[in-house]
Design goal:
This protein is mainly alpha-helical and about 350 residues long. The protein is built from 16 helices and 4 strands. The strands form 2 sheets. Strands 1-2 form a two-stranded antiparallel sheet. The longest helix has 26 residues. It is elongated and about 120 Å long.
């Protein structure tokens, strides 16, 4: 029987094989790789000698290794995307993120300072908020007012509102309601809803301007139509009592409802009282009354808690439920409500 010797084309292992196996598939006992050795390949391999260096590491790719490589790169790409998203979004809804005196946060502060010094109104506002809140820097009301002024002078409506508050409360500047009114007006004219509401309040109070019910309603309406809950509540009050407009309980209910839906507590219990008592000729509706009393009660208002308990003990707007009545009376009594305490005493609790 004839044999021939050659070296494995993958690992270089010296092999001795029966001549009859030439041109047939064989497997190296060392590296377990399969191959077919032709006459030409045999000669070539013997001339080249055993593989070395990088060529020794190359192996045919299997389906399993291909899938692994694909999954690895997919995970890598997702990871980089997630890191980028986290770095791009501001978690504070527009305000500077919470920072500490680390190198990166200081760099952000320095960038804001540089941009603010160059006249960037948004950077000036962010810098003012930092100093007002002590966000990464020491609280400094004077510096806050300084940068609010810079930003306000550049037309930033949020800064105009905040500068008005600084003057109204005397934070970082001398208390000056005329200057406060000036900046509230600037912010209101630039569409800031809180400034619009505050301008309405100034015309209502008549402290630094003459009282003007028409302008009160005008600015309340501007802010209310832009979604300001305080203004919606106040505009409802104007319609209920005829301040600056004709009395109109339908419109009063409309604006109270808008404010209540926006989470305004006072509007919620006002609506409830109107439906419970039939105020102003409004038909009584105990179900609606109980609904709005519950909204106020869940926010912790002791009056709403007492009235919701009353609804449960009398079955008005809800099914009678002594346990629920006692629960809400106790909630109210815990906050010092005398009527709730009396109700519990009469019930034997």
């Amino acid at each position: 029987m004839a044999y021939f010797e050659f070296k494995c084309p993958f690992c270089g292992q010296k092999l001795r094989v029966d001549e009859s196996l030439r041109e047939k598939r064989m497997k190296c006992p060392k590296c377990q790789q399969q191959f077919v050795l032709s006459e030409r390949e045999k000669a070539k391999r013997q001339e080249e000698g055993p593989p070395s260096g990088f060529r020794c590491l190359i192996r045919p790719l299997t389906m399993k290794s291909v899938i692994f490589c694909i999954l690895f790169f997919v995970v890598l790409i997702i990871g980089f995307c997630w890191m980028g998203i986290n770095g791009c979004f501001d978690r504070k809804g527009g305000r500077p993120p919470e920072i500490t005196n680390t190198g990166s946060s200081k760099s952000r502060y320095e960038r804001d300072l540089e941009s603010a010094t160059e006249g960037d109104g948004r950077a000036q506002y962010r810098l003012a908020v930092r100093f007002a809140e002590g966000n990464g820097v020491e609280k400094d009301a004077e510096k806050a007012a300084h940068w609010f002024r810079k930003s306000a002078e550049n037309g930033n409506s949020e800064a105009q509102l905040e500068l008005g508050r600084c003057y109204e409360q005397g934070k970082g500047v001398g208390k000056d309601k005329e200057r406060a009114l000036y900046w509230y007006r600037k912010g209101a004219e630039n569409g800031n809803t809180e400034a619009q509401y505050m301008l309405g309040v100034y015309y209502f109070l008549g402290e630094v301007v003459e009282k003007d019910p028409g302008k009160v309603v005008y600015w309340y309406r501007k802010a209310a139509e832009n979604g300001n809950a305080e203004a919606q509540n106040s505009l409802g009050h104007c319609y209920q009592f005829g301040n600056g407009v004709e009395k109109d309980m339908g419109k009063a209910l409309y604006w109270y409802g808008k404010a209540a839906e926006n989470g305004h507590l006072r509007s919620q219990w006002l609506l409830a009282d109107i439906y419970f008592s039939g105020t102003g000729g409004v038909p009584k509706d105990y179900a609606k009354a109980a609904y709005w009393y519950r909204k106020g009660a869940e926010k912790g208002d002791s009056g709403c808690q007492f009235m919701l308990g009353l609804c449960y003990i009398t079955g008005r707007g809800v099914s009678e439920d002594m346990n629920q009545a006692v629960y809400w009376f106790r909630k109210s009594a815990d906050q010092g409500n005398d009527l709730a305490k009396m109700a519990l005493k009469r019930l034997g609790y």
